[in-house]
Amino acid sequence: MKVKNIIRKNISYKRISALLAVMMILVMMTGMVSGCGKEKKVKKVETIDDLVGSSIGVQIGTTGDIYASDYEDDGKGSSVTRFNKGADAIQALKQNKINAVIIDEQPAKVFVEKNKELKILGEEFAVEDYAICIAKGNTDLEEKINKTIDELKADGTLKNIISSYIYESDEEKTERYTSPENVVRNNGTLNVATNVAFPPYEYYENGKAIGIDMDLGQAIADRLGMNLKVTDIEFDSVIVAVQSGKSDVGISGLTVTEDRLKNIDFSESYTTAKQVVIVNTNDKALSSSQATFSEKFKQCFIEENRWQYITKGLTSTVLITVFAGIIGIILGFIFAIIRVAYVRSESKTFVLKLLEWFVKAYLSVFRGTPVLVQLMIMYYVVFASIDVNPVFAAVLAFGLNSAAYVSEAIRAGIMAIPIGQFEAGRSLGFTYTQTMIHIVLPQAVKNALPAMGNEFISLLKESSIVGYVGLVDVTKAGDIIRSKTYEAMVPLLAVALVYFVIVLILTKFVEKLEWRLKKHER
Amino acid sequence: MKDKQKSGEILIEVKNLCKAYGNHKVLENVNTVIRKGEVISIIGPSGCGKSTFLRSINRLEKPEKGQIIYNGMDVLDKNTDINKIRQKIGMVFQQFNLFPHMTVKKNIMIAPVKLNGVDKEKAEKDAADLLERVGLSDKADAYPENLSGGQKQRIAIARTMAMHPEIILFDEPTSALDPEMVVEVLEIMKELAATGMTMLVVTHEMGFAKEVSDRVMFFDEMNIKEEGTPDEVFGNPKSQRLKEFLSKVR
């Protein structure tokens, strides 16, 4: 026993150090590759006409995306890359992966201010109206909001809000909006969907979503006597969230377009904005800025207590994984038992046939579609008109998905138990269920454990997509830090490390469990 | 002992038992009576249906036709509570089928505790007594994996006896054993027979059949071809098939 123990320990130490080595190699490769891209040819974009034949970056679903799409199929070599966030597009531009970014003027200014090598082209690309989106048919709310916007325009509140963020000189700068005292909020909650990565309209400061849109939302809520609740989701999901009733309104620097009007109503415009083109003046594919690692680290985690994004995200990640795992195990067991019962029973009753059919259909659906799609369907379709915490929707979506895989692992575990075990149980007088519980399943679980361990590791890692329904998990937390610091490497590596450590702990735990269950074989 | 066959109370009555796997008939119209306290050996060439017959008695096999009357109930009737009946019909398998995730003691205790609600202390004491009877008191806390084949089969016998069955079915209990371990299992079975336990034993051990059984059934061609006392069957075989069979196994 002792000898085995030592060997096992050696193996796991070896494995851990091997894994660490792989991580190190990856980090080193990142450095090497980003240092040797200097030969890359860069097409210069100096005027808007140069956009033809260039590669254009946009934030997906924005009007910039709509304009860029006109170039996309021009047959002159133009291409469009769609990023989830404006900041990601900027990062790609900095690395000369793309030639230009079409984006709203105000965020463009912020980006350019923070990245000296970037500049905004002199010519305006387009001028457009920003408005609040409201679900079609929600005329009552639409009227209220239009009336409130008129009031805010009339008494100068709106102007003040805008100039507290956008100003040419300090004299023009106004005080940030604060809610008046004594607001009676007994008209419920105004749920606002937005994508907090679009300064100065919406961005994070000290962990709080602020910006013109956020202040406008607050001002409207104040006037309507409502509480304000902001949900941060992907930009291309904002309209979907309002459409499906998840949120009452979308305030996210939304431009009124023909296509959007087909699906959603807009309030009157609260401001105009321009689309501009950002280009990189530095045509060398630089790795990110010259800051040292410790400076970057400070910027990403210490400043503004940004590490809190990661710790908060970790809570969501763990919560979702654990509860989804529990649902997966419970349902997985039930499904596995149904399928085994069907195969093993000689008289197949109608109910059993029906159940087996259901489980088979379930498995092929949940294993045959991406979990991201399942998650979105769960949140935006299944729970469209029900107010549900996105954590709950995510737990359910991942739990149902996991059940499909767990049930197959357990089924294989059961089928590997010799039929004699089953017969021995039944011959003693145990019922089918008792035989399963006392004799077959304890052994089957032991067989299924390695596969189940793998499933939980996948589950943990797959949970990194919950940003799509507005949750901040570890991955999303890294994204937020990235969009604020324009630094890719450090947050991404930190996120990778967090997952890696959890997986390591999980693997250890499964190994321990296996070891315990196998004690009769020692 | 031999007069049990005639005078003993009927425990099980088999009537017109038929079993086929698809088109392949295994049993056809088997009729017999098993009396309390009888030790019956079932012999015959492989594939003759003797194991199927044995496994039908506690419905591990489901014959299409016929009746198996046990204590006035038809084992094969769907409405019979088969689990209750199985508690009183023990079974010992060729492959032992001990539960590998439980200690020897727990293997023996699980059925009385879970099914009869026997309290743990009593079950533990009974298990200790049974282990002493099969001579394996020192293995109470061992796991099956660490036992020899012979030891495993002795534990399997103890496990089935823990439910105080009225009859025990043995399905080739020594066929999977190394020769030197056969004896220890047969010894236990002999002791069991001596206590008056009703036993139905499918076996290739002609010595055991001769020495211990009250009756020997020769299965061939889907039925009991010939039966009688060991003296009759071994000493004076009537059918050509039995003569051939005996000449092969001797």
Structure description:
The complex is a heterodimer of chains A (522) and B (250). Chain A is built from 18 helices and 13 strands. Chain A is α/β, with parallel strands linked by helices and 522 residues long. In chain A, strands 1, 2, 3, 4, 5 and 13 form a six-stranded mixed beta sheet that branches. The termini of chain A are close together. By secondary structure, chain B is an alpha/beta fold. In chain B, β1 (10-21) and β2 (24-35) form a beta hairpin. In chain B, α5 crosses α6 (149-161). At the A-B interface, α15 and α16 of A face α3, β6 and α4 of B.
Throw out a few tags for this protein.
heterodimer, A: 522 residues, alpha/beta, D-Maltodextrin-Binding Protein, domain 2, MetI-like fold, 3 domains, 6-stranded mixed beta sheet, 13 strands, B: 250 residues, 4-stranded antiparallel beta sheet, 10 helices, 10 strands, disordered N terminus
Topology (elements, then pairings):
The complex is a heterodimer of chains A (522) and B (250).
Chain A: H1 2-35, E1 55-59, H2 63-72, E2 79-83, H3 86-94, E3 100-104, H4 105-114, E4 118-120, E5 126-130, E6 133-135, H5 139-154, H6 157-163, E7 189-194, E8 203-205, E9 208-210, H7 212-224, E10 227-232, H8 235-243, E11 249-250, H9 258-263, E12 264-266, E13 271-280, H10 293-302, H11 307-344, H12 350-368, H13 371-382, H14 390-415, H15 419-427, H16 432-462, H17 474-485, H18 489-517
Parallel strand pairs in A: 1-2, 1-3, 7-10, 7-11
Antiparallel strand pairs in A: 3-13, 4-13, 5-13, 6-11, 6-12, 8-9
Helix pairs in contact in A: 5-7, 6-7, 11-12, 11-14, 11-16, 11-17, 12-14, 13-14, 14-16, 15-16, 16-18, 17-18
Chain B: H1 4-7, E1 10-21, E2 24-35, E3 39-43, H2 50-57, E4 65-70, E5 73-74, H3 82-88, E6 89-92, H4 104-116, H5 120-133, H6 149-161, E7 167-171, H7 179-194, E8 198-202, H8 206-212, E9 215-220, E10 223-228, H9 230-235, H10 240-249
Parallel strand pairs in B: 3-8, 3-9, 6-7, 7-8
Antiparallel strand pairs in B: 1-2, 1-4, 4-5, 9-10
Helix pairs in contact in B: 4-5, 4-6, 5-6, 6-7
